[in-house]
Give the backbone structure.
Amino acid sequence: MKISTRSIVIAGVLIAVSAVLALTGLGYFPVPNVTGEATIMQVPAIIGGVLEGPIVGLIVGIIFGFNALARFAGLPIFAGQPAWMPFVVLFLPRLMIGVVAAYAYRWLKGSNVIVALAVAGIAGTLTNTVLVLGLGIGFGLLPVAIIPTVIPQVIFECTIAAVITVAVVAVWKRIDTGRGGSSV
């Protein structure tokens, strides 16, 4: 497989954005539920997947995965667990965010590009949430009762991801959103 110079550059820029979001804490928002914080860290991986395909989405998602390991591997839920457990629950799901977003976008872009972008943002975000919570519940780290408590957060994260993905990619690709404007 061959990766273009454009893909490398876009991956590099989105990796830098991910790093800034992670290192400054701007990628996380406090929320009053059991998780304690919502995130937009998935958005660069989603945008990478939409703009350049699943490989770039996966590469950008690696940064989110490492950040998740650094932030959350020390949580009490991992105490007494095998050393590989945080890697499986916290790192691996983040690799799939951009991949799923890329395929969701490809599947829908022929009908309506704006809708396809929004769906890609939602699909990437749900990939993160469903895989992390699903693995956490499946391995007995989290109770099933956590699901209703995080639904408002999931809706918030999906909405933010959809809006940012549409805005950034529409500008990047110069997609006509139907809004009037000056020709000057």
User: Anything to note?
Assistant: The first strand starts at residue 28 and ends at 30.
